[in-house]
Amino acid sequence: MRLKDKVAIVTGGGSGIGREAALAFAREGAKVVVADILPERAEGTTAEIVKQGGEAMGLKVDVRQAEEVEKLVSEAVARFGKLDIMYNNAGIFEGNVLVHIFPEEMWDAVMDTNAKGVFLGCKYAIPEMLKQGKGKIINTASVCGFGGRSAGTAYTASKHAIIGITRQVAAWYGPMGINCNCICPSLVRTTMTEELLQVPEVVERALAAIPMGRFSDPEEITPLLVYLASDESNYVTGAAVTIDGGWTVNI
Known about the structure:
This protein is an alpha/beta fold.
């Protein structure tokens, strides 16, 4: 098992990429804390892990709130004794709304969830990792972190920010044994993208940009996440790894 005896937190772990990551981490031997703003989703993933013979705990967490993220980390350590892997995955998407009609409150909601949520996850995970002199932080960015045509203003800005946070944390904490990387998927079939993928023109335009000619499923993302969480990636840090069917060759 590649993550045997590791302790992992997964935010946004109740659905989509986060759910599949939590399940994959558990299959590889990790004890997993599943955090989600919807408690029934967190408990659903937790129950599935336990059903498969793993160890897990589900928690309701709003990653926009510092006190809730701090409590998430402290409860994970209280339950399992340490923290080895922090996967900051929780995020929202506002749709393709043009700048001149973009509501300020929508900007705040997206940036607080996507960018601030990653910042807070790093902020509270790092002290626990420093205690043991090592740790793996993984953040979910996007191909939208490289360009400006694929999504809405706040989502695109937030994903650029996540790449920046990832690189800064890697630079500062690499000497202290902490690896920090982010993944940059293109369109993945999840509950977040379900409505978007019902719009024919969006699907047509997106598929035209992907050389492989199809969207991905969360299960195709998890092997990369397991690698980045494992000791196999000990010399990988500060990377923004595309897993996009070739989308970014056209940026």
